[in-house]
Amino acid sequence: ISTNSLTTSFGWTDREVYIQHDVLELADVLFTFIETQAFGFRLSDLVSTYHRINVLTYSQCLACDSVRPKTDSSHGVGLNVEQATSFDDAMKRYVTPEILGDGNKVFCDKCNGKTDTKRGYRFESLPYILKVYFRRWNFNWATLTRTKIDKEIPFPLEFDGNDYIGSDGYLENESHTSKSDKF
């Protein structure tokens, strides 16, 4: 079966044949196309309600708590499984922010200098149907080759996403949390 009609409707040309797209990219293109082309139908609302994730990417100064947020949306989430032992562990690692300090401090406009900064992702909302894919490939810098992460990751068929909305994952119980965790 030819996929030319489908790929042409996405605006893809013959050049895209040589670009690898993963399943999440396809879902984003497909569901965005449905949302924008569903004139006069409630299909657009249905796709958003059941499939769209809203994620806040942020940098928060740990000296003054000022936050630089950016909201993005997607139709799925890619979880790194290299060190994860389960789905819950991978989700917590995803939302656990990175603390940038020492040689990686970030300039804060409010403090007018480089400060320790908390940078991460925060789910603002999760859809009714969460599409997850596991990032099972790594790049080995020593051999300059891709290596596959070959291990089992237990995951539930149903879960309560409320545990991850607004969460700092594993960092919540550590001393790096700021005065105003929830922004």
TrEMBL record:
Signal peptide: none annotated. It comes from the Eukaryota. Gene3D superfamilies: Cysteine proteinases (3.90.70.10). One of its GO terms (cellular component) is nucleus. GO terms for molecular function: cysteine-type deubiquitinase activity. Residues 1-183 form the USP domain. Pfam families: UCH. GO terms for biological process: protein deubiquitination. PANTHER family: UBIQUITIN CARBOXYL-TERMINAL HYDROLASE, UBIQUITIN CARBOXYL-TERMINAL HYDROLASE 47. This is USP domain-containing protein. It comes from Reticulomyxa filosa. The lineage of its organism: Eukaryota, Sar, Rhizaria, Retaria, Foraminifera.
